[in-house]
Design a protein that fits this description.
Number of strands of chain C: 5
Strand content of chain A: 15-25%
Oligomer: heterotrimer
Distance between the termini of chain A: 22 Å
Number of helices of chain C: 11
Number of domains of chain A: 1
Shape of chain A: globular
Strand content of chain C: under 5%
Strand order of the largest sheet of chain A: 6-7-8-3-9-10
Membrane topology (chain A): Peripheral membrane protein
Chains: A alpha/beta (255), B mainly alpha (253), C mainly alpha (383)
Radius of gyration of chain C: 24 Å
CATH superfamily of chain A: P-loop containing nucleotide triphosphate hydrolases
Pfam families (chain A): ABC_tran
Number of helices of chain A: 10
Strand order of the largest sheet of chain C: 2-3
Family (chain A): Belongs to the ABC transporter superfamily.
CATH architecture of chain A: 3-Layer(aba) Sandwich
CATH class of chain A: Alpha Beta
Structural class of chain A: alpha/beta
CATH class of chain C: Mainly Alpha
Largest sheet of chain C: 2 strands, antiparallel
Subcellular location (chain A): Cell membrane
Function (chain A): Part of an ABC transporter complex. Responsible for energy coupling to the transport system. Probably part of an ABC transporter complex. Responsible for energy coupling to the transport system.
CATH topology of chain A: Rossmann fold
Distance between the termini of chain C: 51 Å
Structural class of chain C: mainly alpha
Helix content of chain A: 25-40%
Chain lengths: 255, 253, 383
């Protein structure tokens, strides 16, 4: 990565509001900014508008008000290809993400769509799969993999595009504890900006020093994850609950 | 209508037929069936020779006869239709064991049975030696419209996913004591079908989002392409050419 | 792809271990036209027709769905493939299942519908040997195009004519599916008449086909209508045939109402001038019904046209069959033409008649129920 003197933030969202065609309004003016290299958790109860926000980050949903800027580039028609290369979204259901017949083709899809061919494409695929520890599954059809493996391949499909920011929608959902830990190790080993949308609070605490709370379509809180999770009143107000017996104050972070 | 379950026909193997590039196999299969269908039905020996040719292919592909014959059994519904033909067809009639049968109908029944069976056997051999993935690559190589190949590819990729959803919905119904027994339960089943459609369509939308997020703009990047050497082509086309010789003889004699 | 053998065999083991839920390994056979049923020239011509229809549909679908065509049509094809495996028990161990042409047309529109059914048929032919490869053209033309197009035309016609509302959509679906099946049967009969390989009295074929398929059509109609009803109850916006008006959006940003800027990618269909077109639709529908009845009656009751082609065919076959010493067509049954004329005409009349009666019965039933419970809310305003 070539670091400029002061790199623009990886992601900057300002005054974002949006309603679906059926009239349901999901976002009511969202503002936040994420610096390059940060790992941030976006927390919020079901229906807070998390997924809607994610779909704005690479311009899939547009037509509301407000702006989204990725590494200094405004999200809009003229830079769409560039934006979609820079923002790598890992969707919640890996079956949606892995739409090609084999793992290799799936990981190759993004770079190939960007015009990369031949040996360079092959190398990108190998590197991305190696980073998630799935290199030996290259020629398997995705639906023969376990759920955890599919999620890791889904991360690889996005890493192959060498994105500026990695956006993960509920990365820990449906994973058994071992797969969950493996994924956490992978995410920690990456040197990209990460925005992790989740309501798995211990996972957020484990991986992300900073958290945002999205509630009823606005950012309700922004601060250190440990501080937010320890604030009982704030947590209760936004329907966020820690798992039984989990005390964020007693957790000592390794890194 | 549906007559039981047929397992997916692919048989894993390393035979020379398996190793042929898929588009050569598709082309050869299609050409062979066209030749068979164009053969005059009176040349009965020709159909025997076709069967021998297919037998040779099956032998080369190491597809056991039992496997092939078992798949052929599934064609029973149209056998029934063929059996009816001699009774209902027009024209001159002959008495066989005291039953009046139409000569033309007998020819027709033979025609459908012979050509239909050979057609099914050919398709079974193709499917038994060609993987799903390869079929799609072959169709792409044979210049089917790319969009059509993409649709087929998505259908193959998600066929299992969708049917699995259907199965889970059935289990959910049955766990709650529901069992469809007659027409009055159709409403519930139709709700299942409706829900399945909504899930499929929404999944299609999500898949599209995932594609767009990775730079899809209407055209699929070509990642794999299959190629065939002249030798492979001529090897694959041996079958239809041999059949063509038989067919020409069938017309001439 | 040669160096991956080890992994492939591994993954194959995986398949066999967990194979039981898989659709593609658990395919439920539907009966399609096999090879040898229709002669080679007719198969070739239908192949060209099918290719043309697919080409038109590809363009049309792209217009309807833009770059979403591939994933959406693919998933709908997978849905059709799966839903054909859903058994609808009738009685005493027998059961029916959906053919899906009408359903696809109503849910995703005629173009995408034709594409989905065609892809399903193509894959069934190649992967499961279901339906002959040379008969692909026949299968796609009859089951893909005729079913879908007839169903959609009837459906749109009825939706325009019937009062707006969810029930009208259900009724229109019922009639559309009901008609689409015998229409496909008639189309097949026509192809069989032109290029059938056995000389069966066309009247008999038509009678048998239409008769059987009217029964099948009733099942198809019930399932289709119920399924469309189930979809429209939850996601009316997904029913292509019932798309319509969409309201202009306003957003609340920090308490203030803001108009949505003109959406770039909005896929709002242009709103048609409905009321003025209604008369057009009514007259169109009536005309087509009358025409269908008249033509089918005339075509099947008039032996000349039929005889002529049959005789032409007969002569052709005679030439080729003289070589085989025997000429089974020598005295092409004159006595049976009477029967053919009668039964053919009858089939046409019965087909059209039953259809019209069923259609109007349902229409009147709805009208009357509407009168009774007029207070029932019309939930789907944008029909």
């Amino acid at each position: 990565m070539t670091a400029a003197v002061t790199p623009p933030p990886s992601l900057d969202v300002a005054g974002l509001a949006f309603a679906y065609p059926d009239g349901h309004q999901a976002l009511f003016g969202v503002d936040f900014s994420i610096a390059r290299g940060e790992r941030v958790a976006l927390l919020g109860p079901n229906g807070a508008g998390k997924t809607t926000l994610v779909l704005h980050l690479n311009g899939i949903l547009t037509g509301g008000t407000g702006t989204v800027t990725v590494a200094g580039l405004p999200v809009g028609k003229q830079h769409m290809a560039e934006i979609r290369r820079k923002v790598g979204i890992v969707f919640q259901d890996p079956d949606d993400q892995l739409f090609m017949p084999t793992v290799r083709e799936d990981v190759a899809f993004g770079p190939a769509a960007a015009g990369i061919r031949g040996a360079e494409l092959e190398e990108r695929v190998d590197r991305a799969l190696a980073r998630v520890g799935m290199a030996e599954f290259k020629d398997r059809p995705p639906h023969h993999l376990s759920f955890g493996q599919r999620r890791r391949v889904a991360v690889a499909t996005v890493l192959a595009m060498e994105p500026e920011i990695l956006v993960l929608d509920e990365p820990s959902s449906n994973l058994d504890p071992a797969s969950r830990r493996e994924l956490a190790d992978i995410l920690r080993s990456l040197d990209v900006t990460v925005l992790m949308v989740t309501h798995d609070l211990p996972y957020a605490l484990e991986l992300c020093p900073r958290s945002l709370i999205l509630s009823e379509g606005v950012i309700a809180a922004d601060g250190r994850t440990a501080d937010l999770l320890a604030d009982d009143a704030l947590m209760r107000a936004h329907r966020l609950e820690l798992p039984f017996g989990f005390d964020p104050r007693s957790v000592t972070m390794g890194a | 209508m549906g007559a039981g379950h047929a397992h997916r026909l692919y048989r894993h193997g390393h035979s020379p037929v398996h190793a042929l590039p898929p588009h050569t196999k598709l082309a050869a299969t299609f050409a062979f069936v066209v030749v068979v269908v164009s053969t005059p039905r009176e040349a009965m020996w020709a159909f025997g020779l076709y069967a021998v040719l297919l037998g040779l292919v099956a032998f080369r592909a190491r597809v056991p006869a039992g496997f092939l014959l078992k798949r052929l059994l599934i064609e029973v519904p149209f056998v029934a239709f063929a059996v009816l033909m001699p009774f209902v067809a027009e024209g001159e009639r002959v008495d066989v064991l005291g039953v009046s049968l139409s000569v033309n109908g007998l020819w027709g029944a033979w025609n459908v049975l012979a050509k239909g069976t050979l057609g099914v056997a050919t398709s079974v051999l193709l499917a038994a030696t060609t993987e799903l993935r390869e079929v799609l690559l072959g169709l792409q190589r044979l210049k089917l419209p790319p969009l059509l190949v993409q649709i087929a590819s998505f259908m193959i990729r998600y066929g299992d996913v969708i049917t699995d959803e259907l199965r889970r919905m059935r289990i959910a119904r049955e766990s709650r004591g529901f069992e469809a027994r007659g027409v009055r339960h159709w409403g519930v089943l139709a709700k299942t079908a409706g829900a399945l459609f909504i899930r499929s369509y929404e999944r299609g939308e999500r898949v599209h989002l995932a594609m767009v997020s990775r730079g899809y703009a209407g055209a699929m990047p070509v990642i794999d392409e299959v190629t065939a050497s002249r030798a492979q082509w001529s090897y694959a086309l041996t079958l239809p050419f041999a059949a063509l010789v038989v067919c020409v003889l069938g017309w001439a004699l | 792809m040669c160096d991956t053998r080890e992994q492939q065999s591994e993954s194959n083991e995986r398949v066999t271990r967990s194979c039981e839920p898989f659709a593609l390994s658990h395919y439920h056979r539907t009966v399609h036209v096999p090879d040898g049923f229709i002669n080679a020239p007719t198969s070739a011509v239908t192949g060209v027709v099918a290719a043309g229809a697919i080409a038109v549909s590809l363009r049309g679908a792209r217009r309807e769905l833009d770059e979403r065509t591939a994933p959406l049509a693919g998933l709908v094809a997978a849905f059709i493939f799966a839903v054909q495996m859903l058994n609808f028990p009738v009685a005493a161990g027998t059961s029916g299942h959906l053919l899906g042409g009408a359903l696809a047309a109503i849910l995703v529109g005629p173009y995408t519908g034709v594409l989905c059914i065609s892809v399903v048929l193509l894959m069934q032919g190649i992967l499961f040997a279901d339906g002959g490869l040379t008969a692909l053209g026949v299968n796609i033309t009859v089951m893909g195009c005729v079913t879908t197009v007839v169903a959609y035309a009837v459906f749109r016609g009825l939706v325009k004519v019937l009062p707006r509302g969810r029930r009208s959509v259900t009724v229109a679906s019922f009639v559309a599916a009901l008609l689409s099946v015998p229409a496909a049967a008639l189309a097949f009969t026509l192809l069989y008449w032109i290029g059938g390989t056995t000389d069966v009295a066309i009247g008999k074929v038509a009678t048998a086909m239409v008769g059987v398929h009217l029964l099948i059509g009733i099942g198809e109609a019930a399932i289709t209508a119920l399924t469309v009803g189930a979809v429209i109850a939850v996601r009316p916006d997904l029913v292509h045939g019932a798309r319509g008006l969409q309201q202009k959006l306003q957003l609340r940003v920090n308490g203030a109402l803001v108009d949505v800027p003109a959406a770039e990618g909005a896929r709002t269909a242009p709103v048609a001038a409905r009321t003025s077109r209604r008369t057009l639709w009514v007259s169109g529908l009536v005309t087509s019904l009358v025409l269908a009845g008249f033509v089918s009656f005339y075509a099947s009751a008039n032996p000349d046209g039929l005889e002529k082609v049959a005789a032409d065919k007969g002569i052709d076959e005679k030439v080729e069959e003289h070589a085989a010493a025997d000429s089974p067509l020598a005295d092409y049954g004159v006595k049976d033409v009477d029967n053919a004329r009668l039964s053919g005409g009858l089939a046409g009349v019965i087909g059209v008649g039953v259809t019209v009666v069923a259609g109007s019965a349902v229409f009147w039933a709805v009208r009357r129920r509407r009168g009774v419970d007029d207070a029932s809310p019309t939930a789907v305003e944008n029909v």
